[in-house]
Here is the input.
Amino acid sequence: GENVEQHPSTLSVQEGDSAVIKCTYSDSASNYFPWYKQELGKGPQLIIDIRSNVGEKKDQRIAVTLNKTAKHFSLHITETQPEDSAVYFCAASGSTSSGGYNKLIFGAGTRLAVHP
Amino acid sequence: KAGVTQTPRYLIKTRGQQVTLSCSPISGHRSVSWYQQTPGQGLQFLFEYFSETQRNKGNFPGRFSGRQFSNSRSEMNVSTLELGDSALYLCASSQGTTGNTIYFGEGSWLTVV
Here is the structure.
């Protein structure tokens, strides 16, 4: 079945360092890969997404890379700040052949702690 | 532009009761999907509605159902509640085509006692 693996489950960095979270997906037909940040008591907030026709996308301190051949994608946060502390989820879209449409398969999440 | 709105935010129900949760998508979005989030199972897809039709369904029992209205607002219902149904229920909206950006609401926290 469709599956997304996410590593690491916890990540602790010093303020100003970079953080990298990696995900691997199983469905080769997946074409949409969003990343969400979830703070305590809140819903997932979209921080960046990438589609299968693009290899890399950057938005200020956040970047995402996609390797379709290896079926993995990564989130890179540079110059981390304490307010970046949260749980981050990667996701991959279900494929249209399986009726995926807007079905997202989520990774298990990474708890990021940025220490001042 | 208003985001995805879910009501109620918090509720407590007793085993055996039923519950209805509501979601208003972003204006112009025609797709609404629902997810269940628990510490043990993570984020799991329940179902998706587009133009009042369910077009995708996850692996949940028939006690979980939903519907969508002509204005794209959606409701989900859980009947005969079990303790294990305690979770954060999240609604997400998008324009509806595969690959469209998907936005989440703040969720409805359901506690079953």
Q: What stands out?
A: Chain A has a mean pLDDT of 92. The interface with chain B takes residues 31-32, 34, 36, 42-46, 49, 51, 89, 91, 93-94, 96, 99-109 of chain A (CB under 8 Å). Chain A is about 0% helix and 55% strand.
